[in-house]
Predict the structure.
Amino acid sequence: MKALAETVIDDTLQRIRALVGDKGYITAADAMEPHLVEWRGLWRGQARAVVKPADTAEVAEVVKLCAEAGIPIVPQGGNTSLVGGSVPYEDFDGIILSLARMNRVRAIDRMNYTMTVEAGCVLADLQRIAEENDRFFPLSLAAEGSCMIGGNLSTNAGGVNVLRYGNTRELVLGLEVALPDGTVWEGLRGLRKDNTGYDLKHLFVGAEGTLGIVTAAVLKLFPKPTRRETAMVAISGPDAAIELLARARAASADGVTSFELMPRICFDFVLAHIADTVDPLPQRYDWHVLLELSSTSPEDDGLAEKLQNLLEKAAEDGLVLDAAIAQNQAQANAMWKLRETVSEAQKPEGASIKHDVSVPVSRVPEFLRRADEAVAKAVPGIRVVGFGHVGDGNIHYNLSVPKGGDNQAFLARWEEINEIVHDIVHDMGGSISAEHGLGRLKREEITRYKSQTEMELMRKIKGLIDPKGIMNPGKVL
Amino acid sequence: MKALAETVIDDTLQRIRALVGDKGYITAADAMEPHLVEWRGLWRGQARAVVKPADTAEVAEVVKLCAEAGIPIVPQGGNTSLVGGSVPYEDFDGIILSLARMNRVRAIDRMNYTMTVEAGCVLADLQRIAEENDRFFPLSLAAEGSCMIGGNLSTNAGGVNVLRYGNTRELVLGLEVALPDGTVWEGLRGLRKDNTGYDLKHLFVGAEGTLGIVTAAVLKLFPKPTRRETAMVAISGPDAAIELLARARAASADGVTSFELMPRICFDFVLAHIADTVDPLPQRYDWHVLLELSSTSPEDDGLAEKLQNLLEKAAEDGLVLDAAIAQNQAQANAMWKLRETVSEAQKPEGASIKHDVSVPVSRVPEFLRRADEAVAKAVPGIRVVGFGHVGDGNIHYNLSVPKGGDNQAFLARWEEINEIVHDIVHDMGGSISAEHGLGRLKREEITRYKSQTEMELMRKIKGLIDPKGIMNPGKVL
């Protein structure tokens, strides 16, 4: 039986090779390497081949052949997953299906504020193409130079503009998906309103490639922001951040595009380890918010005055202790550099245990109090680097080893610390994976927090749409 | 067998009555009447009882009992469906489950900009409660005084604020749903970011009660708009409307909350038949847009000037022929009255055949040209009243009988005319039900336009989640 199965598999792979051509069929070790290894080196998987179809028809045919032969598939975009969702397991015996060659923008409809793009388009390219068409595509995140939109869709990526524009899920109007049996669901609609039955696209967005392969999408575009006001604001604490956020939303016609909380330790790490960084404030403060307001108005609509008034009033009320308002783009960039290099700056400080959690925005201060106390009790001297998209209730709650502590001993407690933090998150109605997904990393852990009913529904849907279990096996569920 | 089945049903109904009490169990003809009849009188169904549970536990128990006995259920909110989704069929032999008694607001979290509400809350009450808490719940539609949020969620209701705030789907963060087997999915999360598996809530939103009963939801709130600028703008035609919309979005920091297209015939009908209406413009024009900009800024942020500049520039460029800007709320209300009474004003003009369609916003002018030509060819003298939410690509394409024509002869061609209009819509990548759903009215017709693949996926999902087919039978699918 084994021999027969191998014959079938070999025969299928031959047919796939003939279909996609040598250019789309990779087996050389060095060429396969970047597809097999998680980008931080945390996991290394294997595969029989990396297949790169040129268009949707080829994707569908490859999936159909694999389905018939029972060959599992790991769909892959830019391979920048933070939870191991985009690389195969160590004992994987199927193929990686890379969307990298499908990188065309099929259409731009300026007056419909949409663009129709293929899954392999790199996010930064899409941002640029929107800009060239006098439009704005708001999805923006650290990996944008290499991540692909198919992966962004499959993981419902978040990023720095969610507060104003929503997650990737909110940015998509239509999808084209190769289903696990090789048929194609052609749902590439560019409609703002369509109430004709179940909304299938939301099943595939965020499914991490376990229900099919997103091959193309219709994305929403927006008017291009013409003005931005950026400020680094010293605040009295996390409670003040939540109050300031509500005031900023009201004051700016809901034009708050970013609202990032940063405790002192972020500044200390970045200023110590990252070249060309400087504290924009004249003295040390314990808590900061990086605040950005935007407007699309072609005329000056008083955004700078709004920010000024907001901060002055908040200072009178004791929420704001000090603030630096960027006077030009270079100053704004310098402020953003403080925020964007936090993870990098954490590395020289030793091992860290990370969490990507969310709670209701109103409960962020309570979460920080409870979690800080709990982890300090577990590991005296632990250094809490809890920062991030507080406007979405999303905290990157990263914990650095105590100063001079033993890295290995600290990392050995990864799961224990995860459980402490995630139990608090769960108790507060939060999420243990706010924007990174479940992938391989959290598929076991999630069963601790989701109800039986919800896990059962998810498993039934997986069984329904992918009955042979060939799509990204061992991820999510 | 029949007798035995009837015994089981009787026994189950007895148990349901004991569970919900006399207050929650209605069989008197007069009390059942409003639940059995479609509000315009288009359909009249029957049911064994109208059951009104007091809380989620009761809903779940009723569903469980019905599932065991095979008794079908029509879930019902305010019974304002426009497609017969909320009333039972003529030969229905199950129960209506009304959510009307479940009308508590369970929680308001001002700083999280959310409220947790039960399915039976009337939409207008929720708008008011948000307002009292210095927040804004943007869902707004004609039936808001009696429709219930559970129905809004189950139909993914649209309305007049979709352009800025999205459909109901975009306004919900979490759901509580009684599944067809009587278990409850507790998904009442108030999170802006949560990437932990398949997004189940989007399956139930817009499913028109065919996959389960929405019992509660966490809704998004927004900063309260403090300023509104309303204008009735005479434009050169539909093409000018699309260009003006793009300019308005850019000029107002994406603060266009309404953008409603109205041809001359709307004005003629309304001015002739509706008391206390007046044309705000000094002369007759062929095409109009009712334009509303909003801002939440507590200070004057130049919204009026933005509108003025926008219109002046558009007039220079030949897009705008004339405009009246409301100088106070009374004038704004008078303009809105012209828009909101169009359907009512159509009635005295004789029979009408209606369509709730959408196309990409950029293609609205093309749709109007093609459809106008096609229906005039089919029925010479037909009067096209094509108006509505052009900012969402959503046209209420309503057709009045030719002047002095035979109403019955006209209505006899309903399906033929539907097909002419919907074929054009479909050819343009549009939707034959933009905001009203499929319900009973369009469940057959949709199979003409959706792909086999999509219909099959929808049927499989229905079969998976409601294997006994007891939830709102004969609707959607």
